[in-house]
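Self-study notes.
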Amino acid sequence: MLCLGTDFDPTLSHDAQVKAGAANLQRHVENARAYGVPVVVAVNKFASDTPGELAAVREASLAAGALGGAAARRALHACQSRFRVRS
């Protein structure tokens, strides 16, 4: 899983890497919300992603002020169907 803008540290677990990079995600959510845009974070899910990594991204998304978070093989489709977003 991509570690959200942090340098890779092989001594940390993947879940910890994701949590360490949450500040980058938070800044992106804050930037979008500053323009009054409702934010939903969508990530592409890969076979190598662990449930802990996906949960860490969702938790970071909600903590940053996003309305929700979704992980799917096709992230855009997941957000459109879950939150009824029109493209």
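Second protein, same conventions, sequence then structure:
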Amino acid sequence: MSDLEAPWTDEQVTQLNRFQHGGYFHPFTCGIRDTHPDNEGILIATPEGWHCPVQTCPYRQAWCHDFMADKAWNDGMETYWAGLFADISVNPDGTLFGRPESD
């Protein structure tokens, strides 16, 4: 794994923001989010780099892991997670159960 420095292309920005909300890994978050506890501080990708969603926050970050900006990787993770949960259902009481395997 290597790092990718900003500036990023529009496609990379799209994939980075997709990664941030994909739920596969913990997203990049603001390094000073304790100064605005009412906001999770999930960073937003722009061509110039990451910025905090709190408009008055000065936090910026100019790097990401290269796989985060990779469309094929994001597509693969969506497919993997969709398959992983395909056989799980929710009971009326909120508990999970798997569908019985067919013979």
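Instructor comment on the second fold: The mean pLDDT is 87.
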